[in-house]
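Good morning C.,

I know you're traveling, so I'll keep this short. The sequence:
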Amino acid sequence: FSPEPNVEVNGEPIAVTLPSRPKPVVDPRLESHGYVEQLIDMVRETPLHGQSAQDARLVLEVICAAYASAGLGGAEVSLPFQGDRSLTPLQYWKAG
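The tokens, ready to paste straight into the viewer:
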């Protein structure tokens, strides 16, 4: 079960038309929850919302470094983060 996207104005439903896609989506929830549009926007050369995949990568480096630092009792961790890319931030923290 999943919620259906809808828009209301003063309690009255308004029809929502989702953008068409060149290829069919395997699971319609991916489309209705906006995941496909988010991914398309993320890989655009000039994203609509001003953030690129490279920006996301930099944020992930900061997050991983912060968790690694927490696992090391607050020790300084340099950026760009040089840790194992196969670990999650939580694993860095617990590995301490």
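Safe travels,
E.
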